[in-house]
Design brief:
about 40% helix, two-stranded parallel ribbon, alpha+beta, about 40 residues
């Protein structure tokens, strides 16, 4: 499963913690152009 892209970079700490605790693989991106490249 590919990682979930999260905006903004860095994400709010509560969001990062929630995703980690739920077992999601995620990666923060700074803008949509970077997300399109992923």
């Amino acid at each position: 499963m590919s990682p979930l892209l999260v905006y903004p970079d860095p994400p709010p700490p509560e969001l990062a913690q929630s995703l980690d605790l739920a077992g999601f693989s995620w990666k923060a991106v700074a803008n949509s152009a970077i997300a399109d490249e992923q």
